[in-house]
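FIELD: query
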Amino acid sequence: MWVTPGEALRWLNGVQVQVPAGSLPMGSDDQQRLRHEVLGQWEAALARTVRRKRLAFLTQHPQLESITDQHPNFPMQTLPDGRQRPGYRVEAMLAQDVVKTAIEALRQNMRGAKVSAAGWDRMVSVIREEGGEIDLKDTLSHVMALIDGGTDDDALGAPLPRLHVPQHLYAPLLLAAPAAPVQTDGQLSLLDDQPLTLRISPPPLENSEARLVWDLRRRWQQLHCLSAWEGVEVVLLRNLAGVGVGLFAAEGFFPDFLLWLKRGKHQALAFVEPKGLRHQWPEDKFRLLDEVLPTWSFSVPICGFVLSTTTAEDLGRVKPDCLLHQDPAGDYVDTLLSRLLRLLPPASNIST
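FIELD: result
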């Protein structure tokens, strides 16, 4: 779509603008400034219209994508011996001699003291973090042994904070910073003032993402015992940006998580995007999730949600149906799962 300068000028000459009486009369500079402002508003409105028409066209014919163990959402890494296995790539700077000397001195001074392996790891990680560098060789070997042995568990502290969530298709899920549950409500919060000095691929979970998997685990522990949820399975998978499942890939929209409910032979799928709204209000994303997504016809019913710790009311906005408040108690998980459950046939109509 092209708009020539002449067409824009003809439109601008026909525009009538109301200005406060106190601003009259307007000098030539003020008139020119007003013309530029009106033209800018018109250009923005035109761009929004073109974007919406483009999205409407691109979302008319969605395509299915199979998720297998070879899908990019299960990243593969090459081991030193050449073998490949699913996992993260963790890169860290080796400790300098001064850090090594400090650790060795601590080891000598602690000789004979009863210190657990986890306690020793915490003390050493503090030295390495304070030294500005970190060496994870021993820690990674230890963690890999635990994972291979099926005995690894949540570790919220440095040097490698991670979560084990049974509902997720792989474990562990690495965190971008050490974390701690908030004492008042049990919500998980990353300690953003203690970021990891690591390069991790795929990227570790940020605060809003970690909260979702934490809340899903703790709320499902309570819900799955209720009769309404009998026979229901919950499955979660992190959706990697750029290579995962693109809900509206042409616009770069790769929701952070795929969430399935399964009961018998039936299942429903939700695309879940836990993002803050303080810096943007994604109107197009809301419209696509609320208006376009329900019109798609697939073998399983689908829906989408945006999660935010900021409410629409806080921002003076009208709440879209797909927006859920990520409240500290985790009640939003109940709402999300309940709305997804309504997409499944009643339990009395399901055969296994």
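FIELD: remark
The longest strand covers residues 266-274.
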